[in-house]
Design brief:
The structure is a homodimer of 193-residue chains.
Chain A lengths: L2 H32 L2 H8 L3 H4 L6 H19 L10 H9 L2 H13 L8 H24 L9 H21 L5 H11 L5
Helix pairs in contact in A: 1-2, 1-4, 1-6, 5-9, 6-8, 7-8, 8-9
Chain lengths: 193, 193
């Protein structure tokens, strides 16, 4: 690419990121059903047709917003979202972003239908997340930091399960502490005295 | 009530239950979005207008189906859904009813929006469920069956959290064992050797 093409490319990336930020705000405030591409385009000050240069439709836009949230979480934690000790911190971060957290909870549940556009995204994400946490657990067990009477795979399922399940409790009752629940499950997994 | 009125009343109850059974099947197969009152009425062999004698709309019908599922679960376990040892069995039951389980997972997430018709149903249900499990935990701790270095409230949040979270993992990957996850968390809560 020449310098001019590179500049155009970089500008496109930057523009896309800005659109994702705006879309995340709209999804968070209006929910998936209440969000329209028209509304996102209006907030971004562009025509709806222009939005289609970047995203093929509303479900594609949602998937892009969710993937971008993963990337940002990952960047915040030095490229790894899933060091075990980071979980309470991620939960704390999510408590400060209730709209996106609710969006994620609703999207991950509705996308369990195989015909949902975000189905493959979530299936792949769970498989990757569970595999990563499982490896972290196995390492922590080898270092004597996690009790060894539970299989790494089962422990990973519990941690990720508590993360998703406590989110729901928190959405119904904001007095719920998500970081405390994550800390509790990690404490139960500590080697027995 | 005279005998005739009683007969009519009993018939109405029976008819309502039958409609809930049919609606549950339609919701399970079509999802909330795909379900229409017209379709439910067709399957029941009645007019859509007749359905409105029993339910005020689709969200009311959904709430009634969910409440009926709770009642049936409760009846199966001698009137109490939440004896701790019952959780793996309830998860096993849910694995045999994937459609209703998916419906429940999606409905509990989408109803986190305060304007959703099932919001109050789920908020009340979580509050009741967490309170009941918390009391069960406290009793089990007093009997020396659950470790005492975790508050009953926190343990209740973990069990209910794992129940909801593992459901999602199972919906994306049917190789997931929900009963095994519930057994794992109960094992972690056992008194330390």
């Amino acid at each position: 690419m020449g310098t001019k093409a590179q500049g155009t490319y970089a500008k496109g990336i930057e523009r896309r990121r800005e659109l994702l930020r705006i879309a995340a705000e709209v999804f968070a405030a209006e929910g998936f059903e209440g969000t329209t591409l028209k509304l996102v385009a209006e907030r971004a000050g562009i025509k709806e047709a222009t939005l289609f240069h970047y995203f093929s439709g509303k479900q594609d836009l949602l998937t892009a917003v969710l993937a971008d949230r993963d990337e940002q979480n990952s960047a915040q934690h030095g490229g790894s979202v899933t060091s075990l000790a980071d979980f309470p911190g991620i939960a704390e971060h999510n408590e400060r972003h209730p709209g996106l957290t609710a969006l994620f909870a609703v999207a991950s549940a509705t996308a369990t239908r195989p015909d949902h556009a975000a189905h493959d995204y979530f299936r792949t994400r769970y498989s990757w997340l569970l595999g990563t946490v499982e490896r972290d657990i196995a390492g922590a067990q080898a270092r004597g930091e996690i009790r060894t009477d539970i299989a790494p795979e089962d422990a990973a399922r519990l941690i990720v399960g508590v993360f998703d399940g406590i989110q729901l409790q928190w959405l119904y009752d904001p007095a719920t502490s998500m970081p405390a629940a994550l800390s509790s499950v990690l404490r139960l997994l500590a080697p027995q005295g």
